[in-house]
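Form 7-S
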Amino acid sequence: MANHAKPLPLREGDREILESMTRRKSIGASVALRARTVLLAAGGLSNVQIGDVTGFSDPTVRRWRRRYEEIGIEGLNDVQRPGKPREIDELALIADTLANDGKPPAELGILHWSARIMAERQGISFSSVGRIWRRWRIQPHRIETFKFPTDPALEAKLRDVVGLYLSPPENAVVVSVDEKTQIQALSRTQAEQPLFPTHPLQQSHDYKRNGTTTLFAALDVLTGKLSANAFYQKRTNVEFVDFLNQVADAHPDVELHVICDNYGTHKHQNVKDWLAANPRVSMHFTPTSCSWLNMVEIFFGIITRQCLKRGTFSSVADLQDAMERYIENYNKDAKPFTWTKSAEYLLGKMKRKQIINTEH
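Output:
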C-alpha cells in the first residue's frame, strides 16, 4: 500500500523487550518513544505516520530506525560522549554579563545579551547560560524606565498628597484630577475577523486616523467614582478652569481638595484667580516627575485597556460616546482604590534607588 513502508525486521526476542520498554516507568519517556518508533516501523507504517503518532520529525524517525538496524535495542539509548563533562565557570559568565553595565562590547553591534550569543561567546550551551542567569536573577532582555524626581519640594508635596489619601480631612471631599490627552479615534482599514474556537480576534495592522480628543477626569478618592468628566479639543488653562467649575458643581457646599500634577496650565494666573474666587477649593500638586501619585492615573490605565486599546472608532464623536458609556457603566460598580504606602516608605524607596543607581 502507498501509505506503508517496508516493515523494519526485528531481531529475535526484541518485540517483547520493546513492548516492555514502552510501558516501563523506569525508562525515560524519550527512550520509550524510540522503542515505540521501532515497533511502528516493524508494523510497516511510513515515517510520516510514525511521526504523527510519536511527534518525531521525519529525520528523527529515520535516525532511530537506522540505529536499531545497525546496533539493535542498545542503539536506542543515549550515546555517552567521551571525556569529562566540561565545568562551567559560573562566576566568569556572570562577570562577563555584567561588565560595562551589562552592555555587550560595541564591536558586536548588539544592544543586549541573548542566551545564544553569550553561549557562543563562552563556548557552552545556551540552556546552561539561561539556567545560570535564572539562578542569579539576571534578565538582560528586560529594560525598565525610571526618572528620579528633582523637585526641591519633593518631600513636602509627597507628604501632602499621601496624607490626603491615608487620612482625608473630615467633612471634606478629595478628588484626583488630570487629563488624558491625544486619545485617537482609529478605524481599521478592513473588517475585523471575529473570535471563534482556535482563532483569536484579528484586526488589520493598518488604520485610519479620525481625529483626537482629550479627556478631563475627576476621581472621587472616597468612592472611586468619576464625579466629573469632560472632553475638550485643547488643554489650556481655559479648559482647565471650565472643568474645575464642573468639579465644584459636582461637590457643592463642601470643602474640596483637588490633587493634580505640575502641568503649567494648572498653575496659570487664571487658575489662581478662580481659586481666590472659590476659597472652599484647595489645590494640591504632586512632585515633579511623580505623576504616579495622582490616583486618577489608575483609572486612565483601566479605560485604556478595557475601552480604547482594541476599539475601532469612525469619528471623534464615536470615540467620546464610547468613553461616556464606559464611564457610566464603570461608576455603577466603582470601588475606591486603597492607598497603602506611607510617605516614609515612598521617600525611603526613592532614596535607596538613587543610591543603588549612583553606586552601580
